[in-house]
Amino acid sequence: MAIDIPRIPLGDWIEGGLNWLTSEYSIVTRGISRVTQTGIDGLNDALMWLPDWSLLAIIVALCWWLANSRLAIGAAIGLALIWNLGLWDPMIETLTLVVIATLVAVVIALPVGIAAALSERLYRTIMPVLDFMQTMPAFVYLIPAIPFFGIGSVSAIFATVIFSMPPAIRFTTLGIRQVPVELVEAADAYGATRSQKLIKVQLPMSLPTIMAGINQTIMLALSMVVIAAMIGADGLGSEVWRAIQRLRPGDGFEAGIAVVILAMILDRVTQSLRKQRKS
Question: What's the CATH number where 162 sits?
Fold first, then answer.
């Protein structure tokens, strides 16, 4: 005899919770949306205001200063190719979204990671949450973004922050927990307070690991803002999405190559910063 087990209405509960949050906190979400959109427009307009050759020269100079001449030459060639393909403006829009999303993610992740490193209870609580956030398919994060912030770049920032934040939290926690016990005990012996140990010993020693987490956050943010073109985000992702809709593989590959070039520049710059901190 078959046993009729009722289906758990998990999807209905989640949808009801999202509807309740959307209706009850609409004032908050509208305020966040306005502030975020202002930041996006401001940074995007500032970068667009600069002549193409001027911004290219600034990026190349930063690569030379922060990394080495090889990266600067590679960045110059890659950015010149993006400009030649007519993808300069979409590249700037993508860079704007990545920069803002990464800043927001890092501002949230660093305090959470530090708190988790110093509190065993919080560490055990937050690790399953991070596992959930990292294993959830990226497309799912686009679903709650739409009722909260509507279609557009603000929803893309929201989804990108949630998707890209876990590595920064994990690496921050890992870096602080890996600080040699002898150094912490020496700080205790000299009478350092908890905040002094954190600022003068634990954070400086864990900075290379934290930078590795920020590097991963940047890479995840870049991948997510491309996917977020499905909900109206501007940039290179919208070029890829448009090419898919129009069945134009050549245009899609051109935009994809531009994404790869931007990703390589950001990755190499953050890696060089990490190596400098180690030395």
Answer: 1.10.3720.10
Look at the block and give the residue holding tokens 């909900």: 231
Taking the model in full, what pTM does it have?
0.86
Instruction: Measure the CA–CA gap between 185 and 139, rounded to whole angstroms.
Output: 46
In a domain, 9, yes or no: no
Q: Does 220 score more than 60 pLDDT?
A: yes
Express each pLDDT in 136-171 by its tens digit.
888 888 888 888 887 888 888 888 888 889 999 999
d(CA 93, CA 76): 19
12 found inside a domain: no
Question: Region 177-189: what's the mean pLDDT?
Answer: 82
Residue 220 lies in a domain: yes
Q: What's the rounded Cα separation, in Å, for the pair 5 and 163?
A: 35
User: Concatenated DSSP letters for 144-183?
Assistant: HHHHHH-SSHHHHHHHHHHHHHHHHHHHHHHHHHTS-HHH
